[in-house]
Design brief:
Elements (H helix, E strand, L loop, with lengths): L2 H22 L9 E3 H8 L3 H8 L12 E3 L5 H7 L5
Parallel strand pairs: 1-2
Length: 87
């Protein structure tokens, strides 16, 4: 595969993840116009780093009742770090 094909495949994957986020947003709890990134993570099981990349896109469509997505996680940072570690 050449570099151009890899870039197209990567952009296609990001587009599909973006569409999944857009479909999930109307189903999530909204408080004062804010959706929490943790809610998205629980709903979609997409890694936080990828969620952040998708949320920061300018073409992400938010429902009318959502003004922003809170990027600060209460769960994910530690969950991702310890996911592969044994206890």
């Amino acid at each position: 595969m050449n570099i151009a094909t890899e870039q197209l495949n990567e952009e296609g994957m990001l587009q599909r993840y973006k569409e999944a986020v857009e479909k999930a947003l109307p189903r999530l709890p909204v408080k004062n116009g804010v959706v929490d990134i943790d809610s998205l993570w629980v709903e979609l099981s997409i890694p936080y780093s990828l969620l952040r990349e998708i949320i920061s896109r300018k073409d992400l469509a938010l429902p009318d009742n959502v003004k922003r997505i809170e990027m600060k996680s209460c769960l994910g940072e530690e969950s991702e770090k310890t996911a592969g570690q044994e206890r």
